[in-house]
Amino acid sequence: MTKFSALSLVKNALTGHKGWTEQWPECEPKKEYDVIIVGAGGHGLGAAYYLAKEHGITNVAVIDKGWLGGGNTGRNTTIIRSNYLYDESARLFDHAVDMWQGLSQELNYNVMYSNRGCLMLAHNVHDVQSFQRHIHANRLNGVDNRWLTPEECKEYCPPVNIDKNARYPVMGGALQERAGTARHDAVAWGYARGAAARGVDIIQNCMVRAIRRGPDGAVMGVETDRGFIKAKKVAVSASGHNTMVMETAGVRLPLESMPLQALVSEPVKPCFPCVVMSNAVHAYCSQSDKGELVIGSGTDQYVSYSQRGGLPLIEHTIAAISEVFPIFNRMRMLRKWGGITDNTPDRSPIIGKTPVKNLYVNCGWGTGGFKATPGSAHLLAYTVAKDEPHPINAPFSLERFTTGRLIDEAAAAAVAH
Ligand SMILES: Cc1cc2nc3c(=O)[nH]c(=O)nc-3n(C[C@H](O)[C@H](O)[C@H](O)COP(=O)(O)OP(=O)(O)OC[C@H]3O[C@@H](n4cnc5c(N)ncnc54)[C@H](O)[C@@H]3O)c2cc1C
């Protein structure tokens, strides 16, 4: 693997860019692996990378039914933040935010992490109280978050409309300055490259049809489009399709799969310096380095595996964007798309062991798992390698739905991206 450096860039520029090696090889499955990871999104590829790098487990395959990063990793609006209410969530998401800071250097791959800040606008008394509660809880957990007046919001993000006569006037906002965005594809590519360099096989265009269990009930391997592949351990990280894969092992997950949509505008010059979220009006927006406004919509109100989502949600989102940022009223939208999200009842993820021996799951990230990618990958690798959860992901077990120890970020935030 060629190491990216200023020197290698100059050298290759002078020699017609012929010296670059492939980033990861096309692999045919071996007969047997120590660990198989189902799903080559950021979480699955990252878990393979940390299994190899931190636990010395390199006989690993990551298998995807499509191309790597083609699931929600390559479809999301890339908002990264850790200002969640509950202690468990703050620890989980802040672990990831910590890891984002040095990820490009760690992977020797520019994931374009930009901590430009995330501003959450309050439009009513309930928003004000709820965000101030979040700020206090976050500070107790060492997570940065502070309150801005409407004028300070405008100063931080000039396109925000703070006209007091607006239908939903801005009454202030909660700002997490360490929050931001990253380049989603680069995260998948960087982890894939790092994992492949350590001996991990990445197998694309190969659907996992079923998980096979032996006579003792433990995992034996996976049935795929390219035949049966034996494995000592299997970790499923298949996002919107987790329920379908896990059902084949006899494990039912408390998840509902729903399409979530996003859209981008025509590119314009830099005018939007941060991420802004408005939960009440339900608009959220940032600007990509290409200049497009990246706009997030909501989930459809019904379960579905159709990867496109309904038009009424896009209309609602555009209305909300026009309300909060009237300066964008006449911009043209370029394209929209959807991804299938896997949502738990408490809108917190599940990372851990399952009732089946040697079968692990990483799921339930719903509409907000991109921000957690390095953290969740790191914790999944730990859990698989040690056969026990890391203290950070221990509360995010599957059992919480039987014990009742939910981590109810759904009720706390009313939005999850
Ligand atoms: C429109 C949209 C906007 C979003 N915005 C944000 C945001 O701003 N911030 C944020 O934090 N999160 C956001 N999210 C959520 C985030 O994208 C996901 O939580 C995260 O990317 C999940 O990563 P993953 O690696 O678990 O899943 P994925 O990237 O979806 O990877 C799972 C992989 O599993 C594969 N797979 C499925 N079934 C099988 C099978 N049977 N066999 C083999 N492979 C299989 C799929 O092909 C896929 O590549 C958004 C999601 C969407 C759809």
From TrEMBL:
UniProt GO BP: tetrahydrofolate metabolic process
Catalytic activity: sarcosine + (6S)-5,6,7,8-tetrahydrofolate + O2 = (6R)-5,10-methylene-5,6,7,8-tetrahydrofolate + glycine + H2O2; sarcosine + O2 + H2O = formaldehyde + glycine + H2O2
Enzyme Commission identifier(s): 1.5.3.24
Family matches, as Pfam families: DAO (PF01266)
UniProt cross-references to InterPro entries, sorted A to Z: FAD-dep_OxRdtase, FAD/NAD-bd_sf, Rhodanese-like_dom, SoxB
Any one GO CC term of the record: cytoplasm
Protein name in the entry: Sarcosine oxidase subunit beta
